[in-house]
Design brief:
Largest sheet: 4 strands, antiparallel
Strand order of the largest sheet: 22-32-31-23
Radius of gyration: 54 Å
Number of strands: 39
Helix content: 25-40%
Oligomer: single chain
Amino acid sequence: MSSSSSSQSFSFWQLLVKTITVLLLGMVLFLTIAFTVIGVYQVWYAGRIFPGIHIADVNVGGLNQEQAAFYLSSNFKLTPDGKIHLWYGSNPIEVAPEQLGIRLEISASVQEAYNFGRKGAFGSWLVYRMNNSSSANSLTPTIVFDQPTAVRYLQQIGQLYDHPAIEAQLSLQGTQVVSQLGQNGQQLDIAASLDQIAAQVEQLNLEKVMLTVTQTQPQIMDASPYANMAQKILDQPFSLVLAASPTEPATEWKILPEDLAPMLTFETQQEDGQTRMVPQLKEDYLDAYLSDLSSQVDIKTKNPRFIFNDETRQLDLLTPGVTGWQLDFASTAANVQSALAQGQTSAPVSIAIQQPQVSDSAQAADLGITELVHSESSYFYGSSSARIQNIQTAAAQFHGLLVPPNSTFSMAEVMDEITLDNGYAEALIIYNGQTIEGVGGGVCQVSTTLFRTAFFSGFPITERHPHAYRVSYYEKTAGNKRDNDLAGLDATVYVPIIDLKFENDTPYWLLMETYVDPSASRITWKFYSTWDGRTVNWQTTGPTDVEKPEKPLYRENSELSSGEIEQVEWEADGADIRVDRSVYLGDALMFQDSFDTHYEPWRAVYEYGPGTEGIPANSKDE
């Protein structure tokens, strides 16, 4: 028993060793044959791509790399027709791959095909051979996608097809409101579209690429409800209403539909999170309309006018003050726009009330008007009735006038426009280098008198303009005498360009009174206030560098009769004059100023009728 068991055990191990030996010899034989076959195969296809290798659907098997590169470049297509088909919504866009920066990397693709079956583990080669024995091996080509190039092309597409949302529109045809529907907008989403192209490049699926397009909606697609509201406004006049006051009834101004329509525009507004379209007046039209309306509404604020009673030393009311009204532009414009936005056909007119600085019951002491500060007179002997009328008309505008303390007084601001309608007549004036007939001749008699009153009262003069030549009226004294020291103390005004201004630099109100006495050929200007102790010292050079005028000029005037001669300009010497003034408060010098005047020499001019004899030959106007 024992011997038999040992014999069986020995036979098993012999069999096992023989089996392993056979297996090892078989494996060695197999590997020897396999490597021999591989070697022969590699030698046979040395420098060539193994057969059955495809790049996409292009067969490059058996070709060397140069041949494969040429064959691949000639036959490879990303899509059947070689084009990439982009779609922007329903719009097809056919592009060449290179326009999107997409290209086949030929050398890399061929190199990958050549390496297939050569590089890697022995098992890889066996897999290749097993696959190759039954079907072709299709390799994915190496595709390069240059995204910056694609972005630039997508931007061009966006410029071509993108458009913003179009809001619904309201327009006018005459007085009819017309509504136009809005339109959706669209915009190419370049980033999302770029991702989509990249994904389809990886899949080699570029026959149809749907670009990502974002749709945007207008705030208002249908404006017809707002058109109806606007139409109701235009179906009747639009009214601006000034409410009644204790002294005046309500006033209404109407804008007719045909006048309102050109002024209208339509704007979008936000209300409770909703967008709506409302009618509004164009700002320039509204400003122009309100400017015209203000000329009808505005009432200038006026202080009362007084006369100082020299006996009672109190103020006697001459004319009551006037409460001013001023159109409040901003508030009225807001009222109009708000009314239109709500579909209303009327709006209130807003007024700013301006009370006079001084009440009608003001007392002299309260205003600091306690005495006569200065009175000055000038004389107009020889003036025509028209010139005297103008002096009276101009002087009346300053009679009883109050000048606030610490303020600058402007003569031009007080005077009305110098016209025939305002009571002025035509008289001689100096204009453009000659003496002519003009409305308001003689007003400078008034301005000269005011200048001298302010000058000798010691008030600072901030603007003064002399005449072009010496005018005898302004150098006359009582009794129709002439004082050369008054030369250089004249002042001309030409409202509103040339003005006369002085400062009331005291803490007291200043009351002006003007009196014109035609019988004495005199105008007197009085300043009432509180004298603060100032005195005036002044000196004049008198006329210096006197220049005689040319000989009289004679010129023919066809409107005159033969033998008729009229003088139209009067001779005056040219001269330079300097007037110095020192104003003292007690013994202390307050200020000094000087007034320089240059007068041009002025020749006499005569006009004569045709055929008049005895005219000096060398004095005629050629």
